[in-house]
Amino acid sequence: MTETIFFYAFALLTLGGGVLTITRRNAVHSAIALIVSLAGVAGLFLLQHAEFLFAVQIILYVGGVMLLYLFVIMLVNLEEAARQPQFNKQWWLALACVLVVGLELFYFIRKGAGAFRLAEPSPQTSTLGNTEQLADVLFSQYLLPFELASVLLLVAIVGSVLMGKKEV
User: Fold this and answer.
1) Pick from 81, 100, 117: which residue ends a domain?
2) What are the helix (H) ranges across 76-129?
3) Range 96-99 contact pairs with CB under 8 angstroms and sequence separation of 24 or more
């Protein structure tokens, strides 16, 4: 029962944040609503026992990407951006997208509840959680690509620090 309540709460956060993201005129408010939506998606990952995806969603998207978006939004000159020409002539594309999504919804609603039935879960073969399984595969079969990616990230960090120091 509580899992169902949490599912509806996280789904409401996700959908509500998404709607607020596209309806707010203030860019900062829109970015904060997107953070709420991404946090709702992270909660849905947690309900599905995908702890690794939950952590990646929170750390990478909510923490990193959205923080970068907020910094860019706050540093952009919004008055000059408002004077730029707008792309208001694309109503036909929006109408086509709404029509396609509406037809998909109509199709699935006509098929009934059977179209939304989930597959039976497969029996658990391992006592490890998905994070432990991912770590086991990552550090055994894919150790060299993992280490190469870490060296590449380290080089990118050192390069960005050096480039930032030259500008100051």
Assistant:
1) 81
2) 78-82, 91-111
3) none
Q: Is the pTM of this model over 0.70?
A: no
> How far apart are alpha carbons 87 and 100 in whole angstroms?
22
Instruction: Please choose, from the candidates 15, 43, 19, the residue with its C-alpha nearest in 3D space to the C-alpha of residue 30.
Output: 19
Position 33 in a domain = yes
Residue 112 falls inside a structural domain: no
Q: Range of 51's domain?
A: 1-81
Q: Which helix (H) or strand (E) holds 66?
A: helix 66-75
Contacts of 130 (CB under 8 A, 6+ apart): 49, 50, 51, 52
Within a 13 Å sphere around the CA of 74, how many CA atoms are in the beta-carbon half?
A: 9
pLDDT tens readout for residues 38-57: 999 999 999 998 888 899 89
pLDDT band for position 161 (cuts 50, 70, 90): confident
Distance of alpha carbon 34 from alpha carbon 72, whole angstroms: 15
How do residues 138-150 score in pLDDT, each as one tens digit? 888 888 888 988 8
For residues 8 and 75, state if they share a domain.
yes
CA angle 140, 145, 149 (to 5 degrees): 125
